[in-house]
Each structure stands twice: as C-alpha cells, then as structure tokens.
Amino acid sequence: MSTRLISRIAAYDILIARCFLFIIGCIAVWWGIVSFLGQQSLVERIANRVIAGESFNRATLAQQLPIIESIERAAWCQPAALRSAAIIQLRVIDVAGSTNDHKPTDADLKSLGSVIQNSLSCSPADPFLWLVLYWVENMQNGFKPEHLKYLELSFQLGPNEGWVALKRSPVVFADYERLSSGLKENAFNEFLGLINHRFYEQAADIFTGPAWRVRDTLLPHLVSLPLQNRETFARALYKRGFAVPIPGVEPPDSDPQWWRR
Questions:
Q1: N or C: which end of the chain has fewer CB within 10 A?
Q2: Any residues with CB less than 8 A from the CB of 260 and at least 6 apart, and which?
Q3: Does residue 47 lie in a domain region?
Q4: Is residue 22 part of a domain?
C-alpha cells in the first residue's frame, strides 16, 4: 500500500474521529441545555405554587437551592427563572422562621438579596421583588429612609395586584410610623381594596395583627366601602373575638344570630 494511500486513510479516520467527537460534544451540550431548562421549569412551577399559597416543607424547598445557584451563575438574563429563585429562597427563610424561631442569617439575606438584584436588573418592573428588596435591606442594614423608595416602586408598579397586596399590606402596616404620607395613604387604600375584593379573612388577619395599633386611624376609612363588605368584614373580626365598631354596622349584641352566620 502506498504511503499516499495510507496518509489519505489516516486523514479520513481522523476526520471521522473529529466528527464523532463533535457530535458527542453537541449531544452533551444539548443534553445539558435540556436538563437545565427542565430544572428551571421545575423551579418556576414550584414558585407559582408558593405564590398560590401551597405549603412546602423546608426539605423540599432546600432541594431546589443547587438549581437556584445554577440559575444565578447562568451567563444570560432569565427574568422568570431568577424571580422564581427569589420567591423560593424567601419561602425557605419563612419556613425556617416559622418552624424553628430561626432568624435569617446574613448569608441567607445576602444570597436572597443577590438573586433579587439580578432579577430586577433583568426585569425591573416586578412589584413583588421591590417589596422583598425593601424587607431584605431593612433586615440586613436596619431601616433607613432611603429604603422607602423600594416600597414606593412596589406600589407604583403593582397597585392592583391582589396577591402582591396580600404580601405588602402586612409589611407596610408593620412599618406604618416610618412611612411617608403618600405611602400611608397607599397602605389604607390597599387595605380597603382587600375588603372591597372580598379578601375578608386575610384583611381580618392584617387588621388584628400589624394594623391593630393604627385601627382608630384606619376604621373611619371603611365608611367608603359598600355596607355588605363592611358587614362581612365585621363578622370575620367577630369570629376572631374582636367586636370592633365598624362604621355603619350594628354591634354584635343587636342581633347575635346574624353575627354568627
């Protein structure tokens, strides 16, 4: 066999080997992308279920943290995935705090703050993440008046989003004395909106919780609501043991049976 023929065969074999390696490499990259997108989709589904109020134990949520870390390290902007990552990390902190009386560590808050900042840099029009950023900054660095700009952005970008309002209302009433006059007005209007949209149980929890100390200021504003909404809200309070004088609503002793409906 001639040297030229041997060289051609060798070159052909090398070409086939290179093509094979290229194909294997493409398959590996494709599989990695498919696997990553599948994990990302899982994180987004869990985040949506968290928003919907579904409960998850800490172990289930913690299993998503390695995926969240890979989302953070991705070279391209992924607003939905980063947002979902932030929601899950926040829920991990909430679950830990509710079960173990565990305050978030600096590392917890730093990690959550990093995800939020990355998400907002991709998609700055998310009212929920601006709210969470306000909370994280206060937890990490203590309250500062400049943090209120995050709360203002949250109201501006999501004034009528029910699920955001349910998360935001307890936060604003907890910090009520620190708010600007405009934010205090937003807090009252949002609370009235919850009752007007029939979130009676949630509104009752907020009223008897973080808003309780400002109830005398808040109660007169309820007169702008339809009587039926005020009555139903009053019943929700009464069932919790709070016979609060809601404007225009007869007190419990006027018709005890009606109040128990």
A1: N
A2: none
A3: no
A4: no
